[in-house]
Amino acid sequence: MKLDPATIGISAEAADAYRRLGAERQRTLVAPEDDMWATFADRAEPHALTVGTQLVGRFSVDDDNQLHGFYVRDDFEEYAAELFAHVVDDMDITAAMASTVDPTFLSLSLAAGGSSQPVAVMYDHVARPVSDETVDVRPATRADHPAAVAFYRAETGSPAAFLEPFLAERIELHELYLVEADGKIAATGECRADLRAPSNAHLGLVVGSELRGRGMGSRLMHTLTEICKDQDLTPRCSTEPTNLAAQTVIRRAGFRTRHQIFKIAATSASTDTALPRLAGLARRPRRRSQP
């Protein structure tokens, strides 16, 4: 039995419903999400999905009409493919950003979509590092904020409008560490606690151009890993598939690939070509870092 399309509703300005179903969705993930992409999803426009008067799901859509965090409640899972197709058509979705940690969303996206490409590679710390060598770091303070912003801008090209609040938050939460040389910032490391999946932390680092290729990245990554362990946090990280230098640093520090995030092109899914229901998809209970 199919749903009557007239009973399916999509509501924008649905932040409360989006948050309300957030914890429920977290329990269906097989591993913590990548926190950078999860943050992108949470900052995109939230939507609620209803059938009749019942709230049955949630998702968000970014400025490029890309779909994030699509979730349908267990009691409506047999209609998940129909609801997904309705959202794709109604919202003119261009692509789905789905991860292997969310097998239901990923399966729906692959079944309904076109070409796919990885946009992030996610790593768990599961092996011994190549070297136990660490580097001296100190926690950043509020007085370090201007210098940290200038360092990130020079080394990453990110805009000040993003960096100023981002780094202020990292400093306030004691999540930013500095490596200094000759009284200046030479490298930075982030150890960001995962609010979606407590007991996990996401690592990130930026090595100044003068120190690249000299082993600083590997030593700093190992240092951040040890900081996580001291805080009883499980370290995780990610990077772009094309960032081979970062992947080398990550692997040398004992991390291995476990999951990926894919951009899957959306295709029309009108009622004339309705997709088969994906009933019975596994839902197992169970949150960027980029050197």
Low-pLDDT runs of 5+ residues are: 270-291
Helical region count? 9
Span between termini: 49 Å
- Overall form: elongated
Approximately what portion of the residues adopt beta-strand conformation? Answer: 25-35%
Mean pLDDT, to the nearest integer, reads: 90
Percent of residues in helical segments?
Answer: 25-40%
Briefly note the structural class of the backbone: alpha+beta
Please state the CA-atom Rg, rounded to the nearest Å. Answer: 21 Å
> Largest sheet, described in full?
12 strands, mixed
- Compute the number of strand runs: 12
Order of helices and strands: EHHHEEEHEHEEHHEEEHEHE
Strand order of the largest sheet: 1-2-3-4-5-12-6-11-10-9-8-7
Task: Compose a concise summary of this entry.
This protein has a twelve-stranded mixed β-sheet, with helices on both faces.
